[in-house]
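[audit] Reproducing an earlier prediction to check determinism. Same input, same settings, fresh worker. If the tokens differ from the archived copy the diff job will pick it up downstream; this log only records the rerun itself.
[audit] input (105 residues):
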Amino acid sequence: MADDLTQEGTIAGWLQSEVEGWARDNKRHAFAPIEYSGIRLEIVKRTDRQLAVTVTGPFGRSFDFLARCPKPNEQGVHVAVTWGNSTVTLYVAGKRVADQKAKLH
């Protein structure tokens, strides 16, 4: 991994809620941000059952993703974002769901 975490890295966490059926209901659920070394991951489950994921910090920018919210397992829903080689990738429940190219100067 590069010494500068803004250029290459991974941030991940589990989405969990005390609300039964949170992943399948039509209510908005905002999760606590996940932060590490200047990288911030913010996730909201929208009323349309999509996860709105914003990661701030990779390549000195912010990236927004939308992904279907899967049924949680006993630990919840795992979300990870990786970045490197000018690409940011979102994984939900172990599946690659979206990529974005960073526009570098």
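[audit] rerun output stored. Observation attached for the diff report: Strands lie at 9-15, 29-30, 34-36, 39-45, 50-56, 62-68, 77-84, 87-92, 95-101.
[audit] end
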